[in-house]
Amino acid sequence: MNRQHLHLRNARLIDPKNSLDAHLDLFIADGLVAGIGLPPTGFAAERSIDASGLIACPGLVDLSSRLGGIEPELNAAVAGGVTSLACPPDSKPPLDEPGLVERLVRRSETLGLARVYPIGALTQQLAGEKLAEMNSLARAGCIAFSQAKRAIVDTQLLLRAMQYAATFGYAVRLRPQDQFLTGDGVAHDGEVASRLGLASIPVSAETVAIATALLLASQTGVRLHLSRLSSAAGIALIRQARRSNVQVTCDVAVHHLHLSEMDIGYFDSNARFDPPLRSASDRDALRTAVAEGLAAICSDHTPVDADGKQLPFAEALPGASGLELLLPLTLQWAAQEKLPLALALARITCDPAAILGIEAGSLSVGSPADVCVFDPDETWRVTPDALRSQGKNTPFMGYEVSGRVRMTLVGGRIVFEA
Length: 418
What we know:
The chain is an alpha/beta fold and 418 residues long. It is built from 13 helices and 20 strands. It has an eight-stranded parallel β-sheet with strand order 8-9-10-11-12-15-16-17, with helices on both faces. Strands 3-2-7-18-19-20 form a six-stranded mixed β-sheet. Helix 6 (191-196) links the parallel strand 13 (187-188) and strand 14 (200-201). Helix 7 packs parallel to helix 8 (232-243).
């Protein structure tokens, strides 16, 4: 696990941030990228790795991963090539106290696997009533502030939160969903919910919340990120706001690029998500937005135990295990859309790194040597045994996917090797 001087030979290096896509050698020393193509003066490799037929890219950066049991989930992350991940504040207890944040950061650093970037609670206990101590949380290691899945009903409080965050340069991340329009809904307001008799969630639950957030962001100048958009109408609002120079970014969960309401089938609880899977036309609009670079991709990793899924659809816990599927599902989307590999990798490396404001997502000389080495052509079947996450919950169980991580480096250390 110690840092070594490494020489990665014969790989196809793809670094979207630096517009690099070429067969070049990669040299790593003291935890940093020391050279590309030619070794730095005096470089002596302690280990030379033949990566013929493989792709080496920056370690993947995930905008939203719930950790639960931190060690198995970080092992799942590095097995999926994810070297940096943002952790939402809706843990138990919520990340609304500096001590909790410091403990999470220390634990992740001790494990020495993927880098963990905590998102602090925007309000105390995520209750939406009193602002959390953002300054103290930022000093403890929080890189942004969020309500996770919980809405702030009091728009005056949301305005104050954005004003405060803007004053200190903090980013605010919101999952746009109007709780009154959502009600007790569990599925998209469409033909499938009607046929199955499921309580539905209209698209307006998302768009009303987006419109409110955008208006307040425009007024305050806060850096706003909207998480896990699910609808064509929501994407249209983001596109319009960007044209008006509102500082807003957004992401889409990788499963929403592939699935629609039809995948609920006959009450398949593995297809229960928050936000819900929407229509095929919504899914296609999300795919277009990601292709255009309007949205980044996140795993929305939410491990759920078997008991939480083996319930009637409306009672099952929403979410899927996504860290180990982020790369193959992104590659599958790009292949289906006939998009360049570099563009697809940008959506899960440099784009999310820029949103988070962290030093990651590139292979620039002098940058941290966080590297994902994978075989783009190797196929594997998604089975419970193939996933290291404690959560075996995924609608892709049994699917055959392409793209297998062979090696993951964090800070120049090999933290996963197939």
